[in-house]
Amino acid sequence: MYARSADEFFVRVPLVYEKKVYTGEKQSERYVNFFGKVINLSKRTGNIGVSCDTIESVGEFGFVGCPVLPVSYVRRTYEVYTTEEATRTDKEALTLAYYELNRQIAERIGDGMLLSKTVRTDWTADACVLYCRIEGVFNIGQTCGFELLP
Q1: Angstrom distance (rounded) from CA 29 to CA 61
Q2: Considering only Cβ atoms within 10 Å of each terminal Cβ, which end of the chain, N or C, has fewer?
Q3: Considering the domain boundaries, does residue 146 fall inside one?
Q4: Cα–Cα dist 136/5, whole Å
């Protein structure tokens, strides 16, 4: 069910933010998953206790034309980082704010139609703020499943 409706959005992007800086330190763990049993091939286990991104790659074994075997090789890499304070330029903050605003509007519209959009930009001492009002034709119906009895 579609109806003409209005909606308002608010986006705030701070000029000062925390940025990840990778230290270059990497730690890794290797495992073999053999029919559901995990075999640890590395000495180190557990959490490394610092801020890090975890990257996991899985290699599965199989033969050409055959289904994949329940045997896989897992490599988990931890890339350590620290955070430091960084400052965005006004242009970067405005670009990021419009990107986020457009993402939110696209999510709201779905398969509807945007009729009008009014955007107001405000600058505070520490942020770029966008206020937006949209009008459009949106799908306001809710999908509701029900069971048919025989």
Answers
A1: 19
A2: C
A3: no
A4: 6
Chain centre distance of CA 96? 15
Q: Is the dihedral of CA 108, 111, 117, 123 positive or negative?
A: positive
Tell me, yes or no, whether 144 lies in a domain.
Answer: no
Q: Within a domain: residue 145?
A: no
Q: Is the pTM of this model over 0.90?
A: no
Where do the DSSP E strands lie in the chain?
2-14, 16-34, 37-40, 52-60, 71-87, 113-123, 127-139
**In the numeric block, which tokens belong to residue 119?**
């955007």
**Secondary structure (3-state) at 95:** helix
Distance CA 108, CA 131 (A): 15
Strands of the sheet containing 113-123, edge to edge, are: 2-14, 127-139, 113-123
What are the pLDDT digits (tens) for 64-88? 777 777 788 889 888 999 999 999 9
Residue at 36 is within a domain: yes
